[in-house]
Specification:
The protein is an alpha/beta fold. It contains eleven helices and eight strands. It has a single domain, classed as TIM Barrel (Alpha-Beta Barrel). Helix content is 31%, strand content 11%.
Length: 321
Amino acid sequence: MLATLPLLENTDFPPIRRRALQTLQVNLGYRCNQQCLHCHVDAGPNRREEMALETIEQVLALLRAGRAVRLDVTGGAPELNPHFRHLVSEARAAGIPVTDRCNLTILEEAGQEDLARFLAVHRVGIVASLPCYLEENVDSQRGKGVFDRSIRALRKLNALGYGMEAGGLELSLVYNPQGPSLPPSQSGLEADYKAHLLDRYGIRFGRLLTLANMPIKRFGSTLVSRRQFADYMALLKGAHHHANLDQVMCRDLVSVDWQGHLYDCDFNQMLGIPVRQPGGRRMHLTDLLVENLEGHTIAVADHCYGCTAGQGSSCGGALNA
């Protein structure tokens, strides 16, 4: 894989600082049952990194201490971590809202047959990857048969009350462009998704989140090999909107890797750009029990333009939809 960090480090991205911490985004490991072209984590079936129970207990200690008010669980496929259900059930017992970033097909994996019901019982919000509502586009990006399996998973979630007004269980879908382009209008695309999925498959969901592809890891390497990297960066920089800086996710979210180290966002985690103390030591989640990140300078590089280009992009979708 071709490294992109050397192409991103020399940056003119505007300096920004942290606000009070709200969301603890925890990466439980890089193992996944899929291997998608756009994956900025470079996740796949052969990855073995996963968060240990000791580190998960440290996450729970932080949440119980009130150091963050929301838990956002990601991977890989976070559900493949053997301690996933312990983390979720204990966080919910402590009154912490939990979001699971789910690839949908995990719900059909052997040993996960009761996963959807577990998530529903604990009222876990689901952010589910479905990069298009057309079968051929999804399968080309994520693998043959992924679309059909995703549709079956969505029907299962709907049956449990996800995405249904009466159920009150949050179900959001995530769109990524197929190539080096910016996402279209989130509100317009959401209407298209809802109409197509309901008319064709009888599926309902709450919100569509549009995310720009980041020029890092697998997608960034593909851009370099196809000699499209410079053009894509020019597109992102040319579409930069300064107003989006106020809403970028790194202002009030911290990303935790499988070993417990802190990063300003999931993308910085994948690039190996940690949160550091003034003396240079990289910070661990246990530091948050005694230290406050508010006011800290956020580590930036050129990939940050992916969050501020156009309508903006974050873990919560467009910033100015």
